[in-house]
Amino acid sequence: TADEETDAARFPFTVASIKSEDDEEKPLFSQLHQKQIEDRDASTSSLADQTTAETETDVGDDDDDDDKTFACELCSNRFSRKTTLNNHMRVHTGQKPFACELCGKRYSQKTNLNRHMRVHKGQKPFACELCGKRYGQKTHLNRHMRVHTGQKPFACELCGKKYSLKTTLNTHMRVHTGEKPFACELCGKKFRLKSSLNRHMRVHSGQKPFACELCVKRFSQKTHLITHMRVHTGEKPFACELCGNRFSEKGSLNKHMSVHTGQKHFACELCGRKFCRKSNLNRHMRVHTGQKPFACELCGKRFSHQTTLNNHMRVRSGQKPFACELCGKRFSEKINLNHHMRVHTGEKPFACELCGKRFSKKANLNRHMELYGRRFSQQKTLNNHLSIY
């Protein structure tokens, strides 16, 4: 009816099943809107009843004010019929004479009860002419139409960002106000969104509802599952603009960027050495603590790094997974293969500072320095001896 449509246009908060009917909204907006409605269900239903009653009594009579002879003594609104005034008075008295026989919910106006009954009956009389999706209330159809029109009538006065839903704007405002109304009862941590609190609760419950179909690994967050799937697909959507290296996670790209910037934010408090990654600092600390958490299951020998244990296991098993592409020689460690490649390339990166002789291995340079240094020491001793005698 005209009353219902006018009523719906002015008061978008309703009691009906908004969660299922707003699924077509953009994902983030949909979630925010649904949570907002769920959290305010009790308070907004009362407000909707009162405001709807006021609207219905204000609209639908003759437009001529001279015909409105029945005045409300509390708010000075005027009506052309006594029955309309009586209906309007429920706004002030809070009276709700119309009850749902199925769930007991009460309403101040018969039209509101009729709309509510569609929830139980599954009636969706309002259809979108563009995509055919149906809704139980006109207001829900109006909101849905913004998906097609791109209309965003609700603007943030602080940053200008626009939204298609008023509830989404209200949620956005918490970014500026810092309001976090949803608190964890177990640890006290607060969140802006109810959905964020729900996700956080899995930390305490240990719940992992998202399972990988390929390896049955489970995750507490959908985003973690999506990231994990790249292990199977090999997808690396994050590319370094400087060198072209690609990564499966944004965090890995951020860490990689320190290679180009040279930034080392993580410093050892004991020796001052700096690292670009926290994980590297943690590994370095084992040098000071002597911690060796990685043990060989065959001989019991312990190591401070997992990679060192892996190398050790290859020595025991005789495994040599690193092969030279030029001569076929195989090695148990990648570093040994790198050293071997200098035989083919002729590269000698290690130079003696005293005589300039170059070596392909650091160990060879060290041996050379011992010999050269001993000769130098002996010659100096001889010169000292000759100067005396």
Automatic annotation (TrEMBL):
One GO CC term on file: nucleus
Please give one Gene Ontology molecular function term for this protein: RNA polymerase II transcription regulatory region sequence-specific DNA binding
Listed SUPFAM superfamilies: beta-beta-alpha zinc fingers
Cite the Pfam families for this sequence. Answer: zf-C2H2, zf-C2H2_4, zf-H2C2_2
* Keyword hit for Disulfide bond: no
Q: Where is the composition biased (Polar residues)?
A: 43-54
Give its localization: Nucleus
Its transmembrane ranges are none
**Keywords annotated in UniProt:** DNA-binding, Metal-binding, Nucleus, Repeat, Transcription, Transcription regulation, Zinc, Zinc-finger
InterPro entries per record: C2H2-ZF_Transcription_Reg (IPR050717), Znf_C2H2_sf (IPR036236), Znf_C2H2_type (IPR013087)
Q: Where is this region: Disordered?
A: 1-64
Bias class Acidic residues marks the residues at 55-64
Q: Where is the C2H2-type domain?
A: 70-97, 98-125, 126-153, 154-181, 182-209, 210-237, 238-265, 266-293, 294-321, 322-349, 350-372
What function does the entry list?
Answer: May be involved in transcriptional regulation.
The protein's matches in PANTHER family, at most eight in alphabetical order, are given as: ODD-SKIPPED - RELATED, ZINC FINGER PROTEIN 208-LIKE
What is the protein named?
Answer: C2H2-type domain-containing protein
Q: Which organism is it from?
A: Nothobranchius furzeri (Turquoise killifish)
